[in-house]
Every structure is written in C-alpha cells, then in structure tokens.
Amino acid sequence: MKKIRMICAALTIAAVGAFGGVAWAADTPAQSAQPVVGGETTVIQKEVAAHMQSGYAEVTEIAAIEMNSEFIVVKPEDGSYPEIQLNIGTDTLFVNNKTGKEVKLADIKAGDRVYVYYDMAMTRSIPPQSRAYLVLTDVEEGTPAKLWTAEEIKAENGGDLVVTTDNGGLLLRVPAKSWIDEKTQLQEGERFLAWYDIVALSYPGQATANKAVMILSGVATTQDAGDKEDVSVELPEAVSFITSTVKVKEIINDGNIQYLLVERPDGAGDIQLNFATEGEHALLVVDAQTGVIQDWSSIQPGTQIIVNYNAATTFSLPPQSWLNYALVNLGDNPPVGLFKIEKIGENNEITRILTNEGSLWISFPMQALTQDGMSHSLNTDGYILAWYDIVMESYPAQANADKVVELTQLTEYAEKEREVEWEKKYYNNQQTSELVLGDMVFADTVKYVAHGVPMVPVRLVAEYLGYDVSWDEAAQVANINNGQIQTSLYDGQESFNYTTAIPGAVGMSKPVSLDGMTRMMNDILYVPAELFEMMGHEVSVSGNMMTIK
C-alpha cells in the first residue's frame, strides 16, 4: 500500500521559517546526466542561491538623517534576536499591507508593527545586520502579503489567472478583479504581491488571492526629501527556505511518491520532505566532506544529514514540504552550507568569493581548497561547500574559511566513484561469462548483477543483431531500431517495451518489468539479456557461455 502522508482538507500552509541563520536552496535543473556509450561525462549542477526570510517585528529605531545611511532596527516577535538592523537600499520596497500602495520610509515610526522580508545572511554584530527587501506596514489586520515570482501562468475565461510559484509548490488563482491596478498584465518571471488566507492541503498547494499587485519598480527614498526614483528591482526568489541538520527516520520511493520522513532538532517534531528523483527539480545530494554528487539512495535511515527545504509546509501530521538539496556524510565537522560563486577576487595569495546574493564575502587561501589529486580553477556560477566559524561585521558580511570544497571540478571524480560503489554493491566479479555473437566470442562480457541477473552491453549486442544504435544527448536516451521494431533505453530503467518502426504503422508492446534494470558501467550501458529475448531474439546459456541470435 502506498504510504502517502496527506490529509485532504482546506487548511493554511504554515510558514516555518525563523529569524536568523543562513540557508540556501537548490532550485534549478537536474542532478546528473550520463551518456550511454563513449563521450564526455557531464554533471549539470542545480542553481543554488541565497533567499529571504520574513516575519512580524516591531520597529525600535530609524537611522538619523545625519548618519548618511538608511536602516531600521526591528525587534522580531518570535524572540529569535533581541534586535536586527535592516539596511535599506534602492531595491527595498515599502508597501501598505491594507491598500497594496507604496509608502515611504519617512512614513514609518518607532513602535510601528511591520512585516519584513530580508536576507537570510546577516553579520554577527550587535545587533546583527541584514538587507531589507520588503517592509509591509499597517499589518494589524489581515494576513501579510506574500511575495512571489510567477513561474508559469495559465489564463482562464474571464481573465482569471492560475499562477504556478514556490518552485512548483503552489497553484495560486488570481481573479481578474483582485488586481489593484486593473491594467496589470502579469508575465512569467515577474514578481507580484498576493494576499490570501486559505491554502488547500495538497501538493502543490492551492489558494485564491483576494488582492494582488505587481512589483514593477523599486522605490529609492530619502528621509529628508521623500523623493522617489523608479529603479529595477532585483530581489531573490520570493520563497523562504530552511537549512537544518535532521535525523532520517524513513525513506519512501514507490514510483509515485518519494519522500524522507525526518526528525527535526530541538523537539520540533517530524517533517515529510518530498523530492523528485529525475527531471529539472531532481534532488541534489552532495557528500559534505568531498563535494561528490551522490545518488539519492546514499541517504540512509538513522543517519544525520543537512537538508534545505521550503519553509512553507502543509498543515498536516506530519507537515510536508519540498526538499531542495541534502548533504550527507557530515562527519564531525560539516560545512556551513552550499554556495553559488557570484564573483571572484584575489588579494595576494587569498581568494575571495562573493556569494549569497552579494551579501557575503568568503575568503580563503588556495591551500584550503584541497581535494585528493584534483586541480582547481574556480569559476563564476560554480558551487562550493565552505567551512567557517565567524562572520565579521560589515556589509557585505565577511568570513574566513578554513576549508572549501568545489563541486564543479569534481565531475569526473564523482562519476568514477559512483561506478566503483555501484560495482561493489551489485556486481560479483567472479560471476562473468563469455558472450557468443555469431562466430565471435567476447570474454568476460556478460556481467551478473545482484540475484544473478545476466547483463550485456546494449551497443555490442544490438549492432550485431542489426539494430541502428543512436544516442540522444539532450534526452540522455539510447535508441535502437532495426526497421521493424524500436525501443529507447536510459540508465536506471526498470520497465521495457518496444514500438513498431514501420512508417505509418501503429503498435506498441505491453510494458514489462524484467529481473534487472539498465545500468551504466565505464561509459557502457548494460541491459538485462532478457530484453533481447522480449524483442524476439533467442538467448541461451550453456555452461559459461551465453549466445544471442
């Protein structure tokens, strides 16, 4: 029976984020891709970027004009910090939560209750400092506006929109009449504010906005003149994320749903973290000590891992959220986090990396970037794991790392390690046999995986049997076609079928699950020998020899 931990009801999604801390999220494609035979092995890294968090707070101080800087000091209502200094920039937005209209910094007074969106990275000063993105005023009544990016938009009759956001985790219906500006035409990739109270408990969640407004420009304010100037808005993703060390209790993968059931620290209870095993939102799993990309199956029950997941969760028992990345093999000294390299600067023998949406410099000597026998050439848009203890007070903040591991330079190493581990787990190298194709004998070609399933190299056998073999680089799929029938194969495939290759004809065999799955070894795709028997060929075994014809 499928284990789906859901309660079908219309309930509010709880925002789980807390003030303070640093978190990162993996939010763009793909874990890894491998060629079938030959060619270069590649790993496509997921986009990993800093994100904002939000919460209610009381304004306790506003910078005086003569200080030549603009900031507000707030006291978080959750008590996570006594106070936080939020620095104001030209991209900081001030919006009245009741009306959706812009307000000015000069309109905010000490003692006001506000709802603030700000950078998760902050200095370790007293008070800590962060960068303010959005300040909502007049929040005494009603739910604060949510700041979202439109990922996909579908228009319905009457002008209503169904907007996909939250990394695919929320379907938000925006009625035409809910827009404050009736001339608004929301486009994919644009930011907007939405007000709503109820989220249907599903994945993705579903909600209907009662008010919405587009974010077309930022407002640069000055306290003395109150003038404003339209500028481009550059905000991070309007989704809060949590990075936390958790204990894995259960792993479920039944083909229809995959998730981890984990125990959160400090008595916060269990949470179900859903994830994808393939596609553009596939889970990124990284060895925390080496930076080697792992398969999701490397996550084991009973172990401690670092997870990054969406702060918005379903109001169920246990709550559910979307898992972005996981760090395994934490050891005694896990990294602070996973960072995207935005800018690289050098000063003598020290390398400096700007990251976290421009809010953090990480400095380190090149000898801190050490991985066995690997050469290194850090590149912008690459990714690193970093270890450090202290963040110096500044803006951007500064940290000195004593260890840095680069992900992008470990591609080849990661693939080899994965092959070795897979061979140890599934192959018994004492159980190999010879393959006979016509008058040719190929020694030690047939491999036997777990449970004694014989596997053969697909290109070698298929070409002998008269198939054309091609490799689709974009889809990462091998196609074999003999003019009569054809099939497509990819690494990790468990269900097989074939279709007619005759032009104008229609026909498909019933999908069949064989005793083994396709697996990549040393850039060669192995398939169960039974696959060719399913496609009408004779497969026989005599002693230590297999014949296919």
Q: What portion of the residues fall into strands of 2 or more residues? A: 35-45%
Counted by DSSP, the helix tally is 3
Structural class: mainly beta
Domains, number: 4
- Note the main sheet: 7 strands, mixed
Subunit arrangement of the protein: single chain
Helix content percent band: under 10%
Mean pLDDT: 74
Please describe what this structure looks like.
With 549 residues, the chain is mainly beta. It contains 3 helices and 49 strands. It is elongated. It has 4 domains: 11-45 and 241-425, no CATH class; 50-143, OB fold (Dihydrolipoamide Acetyltransferase, E2P); 146-214, OB fold (Dihydrolipoamide Acetyltransferase, E2P), CATH 2.40.50; 427-548, Copper amine oxidase-like, N-terminal domain (Copper Amine Oxidase, Chain A, domain 1), CATH 3.30.457. Strand 22 and strand 23 form a beta hairpin. The protein is 5% helix and 42% strand. The strands form 12 sheets. Strands 46-47-39-38-37-49-48 form a 7-stranded mixed sheet. The chain has a 6-stranded mixed sheet with strand order 1-16-17-14-13-12, with no helix packed on it. Strands 5-6-7-10-9 form a 5-stranded mixed β-barrel.
